[in-house]
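re: that complex we talked abt at group meeting.

here r the seqs, copy pasted straight from the sheet so there may be weird spacing, ignore it
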Amino acid sequence: MGQSNLYHCLNVHQFDRSFVEENCALADKVRDIAKSKTGAEYLASLLNHKRAMLYFVQPSTRTFLSFYSSCQVLGIKCAEVRDTKTSSEIKGESEEDTIRTFSSYVDLIIMRHPKENFADKIAASLDNTGRRVPIINAGSGKDQHPTQALLDIYTLQRSFKHRGGIDGKKIAMVGDLRRGRTCRSLSLLLSMFDDVKLYFVAPREFQMTTDILELLNICKTKYEITDDLNKVIPEVDAVYVTRLQDEWDTDEGGTQKYDVSRYSINLGNLRMLKPDAVILHPLPRREEIALEVDADPRAIYWRQVRNGMWSRVALISQIFGCSKNINDYYISNY
Ligand code: NCD
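got the structure back, here u go
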């Protein structure tokens, strides 16, 4: 089992297939170990000498709590800043100085920020100080959400465990693909798998942007662009549904809407989905998945949430170099 050299986790370009697969395997072990009190205590002893800052200056429920819980699983103590009105930024301090201050107190900074590349900038500037700490990007603007992509891959991998894994699968991404960072990051991770075909299902103005399509071309990943969800549903092994990202409207000058009912899963079109296909959603959901769909065994978005916590435990343990301890503990006890 190789030790990873990942320090900052800023974008999916840093991952290769073996890293992603190792992260999934590690997440599986962690969730087994955490089932017993002795196992949970072992995990919580691994990094109980570390502290983390969660700097989330964009709305978040799941990702914030997921990281918070993942840190707790490993014994890491957390502090948080979620509202810059309560920090010295209100006194005119730059965000860079605020974050440099955190680095004096903690060993890990997990950040969600509306600006693309902000996490990269902070990581680069901390690298030039005497107090470098790892930065994890928990969502950067409309651009990237690398840890969501890791947990999405983990969820797909578990779903297709007995069907040859992710290789060869057909996966549809539906909704506001232009402004949805989850689909952008996930598309790039999926391009590492063999013979995957992606379907980008969105109105033309909300389609996947050319920067991602060009990268898929380079990887020779097949994809189809369409606005017809009902045509795609019977063909795919997974549907990844996303919401309209209208919080960006003001930035872009005006309201941008589409008819969400055409990009939604409901009891009507659910009938066309293969019996062994799965439905994912990064959440939060609005009306793009009808509540009645939750009872269908193919709806796995609530399991996806829990997978996220284990996948992030695995990631943090890789960053701090304790994945070997977890693997060794697993081998000796299971
Ligand atoms: C996503 C995000 O923040 O990009 N949520 C999440 O992290 N689970 C998706 C979204 O907000 O639509």
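couple things i noticed - The mean pLDDT is 95. Strands lie at 51-56, 77-81, 108-113, 135-140, 170-174, 197-201, 222-226, 238-241, 278-280.
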